[in-house]
TrEMBL record:
<dbReference type="GO" id="GO:0004493">
    <property type="term" value="F:methylmalonyl-CoA epimerase activity"/>
</dbReference>
<feature type="domain" description="VOC">
    <location>
        <begin position="7"/>
        <end position="134"/>
    </location>
</feature>
<keyword id="KW-0479">Metal-binding</keyword>
<dbReference type="GO" id="GO:0046491">
    <property type="term" value="P:L-methylmalonyl-CoA metabolic process"/>
</dbReference>
<dbReference type="InterPro" id="IPR051785">
    <property type="entry name" value="MMCE/EMCE_epimerase"/>
</dbReference>
<dbReference type="GO" id="GO:0046872">
    <property type="term" value="F:metal ion binding"/>
</dbReference>
<dbReference type="Pfam" id="PF13669">
    <property type="entry name" value="Glyoxalase_4"/>
</dbReference>
<dbReference type="InterPro" id="IPR037523">
    <property type="entry name" value="VOC_core"/>
</dbReference>
<protein>
    <submittedName>
        <fullName>VOC family protein</fullName>
    </submittedName>
</protein>
<dbReference type="InterPro" id="IPR029068">
    <property type="entry name" value="Glyas_Bleomycin-R_OHBP_Dase"/>
</dbReference>
Amino acid sequence: MSGFRYGFHHGGISVPDLDAAVEWYGSVLGFSLERRFEIPTIPAQVAMIANGDLRIELFEVPGAAPLPDERRIPDRDVHTHGVKHVAFVAPDVPALVEELKGRGADIVWLKVMPHGTACFIRDLAGNLIEFVQGPVPAGGAGSL
């Protein structure tokens, strides 16, 4: 396909407690609240959070089912079709893991593999977040 250009806008994550999630993403990953709004047709309370050019849309939906246990483990989650996780790039993932541990993050694992270094953490609802090691694009990355 030629002629189509696009960039990443945001990922969406469902959480059981919007206020707690906004606080967690702020204190652990350095995101700040951009805006809150309601989507009555779902119905959902929504928060758009940002860290630099990175955006995550958090949804709190009354009566939503909790994340199943198998979706909380990276190597098991891929056995279910659908969106798996959000991933961010960081220049030094092992150092980032140490920083995140100090902030109380639930570290799933850190792996140095032939194809690259990565870690997975879980947010306060068990949703998976990956960090991969690599160069951070100029002007397009957040920071802790």
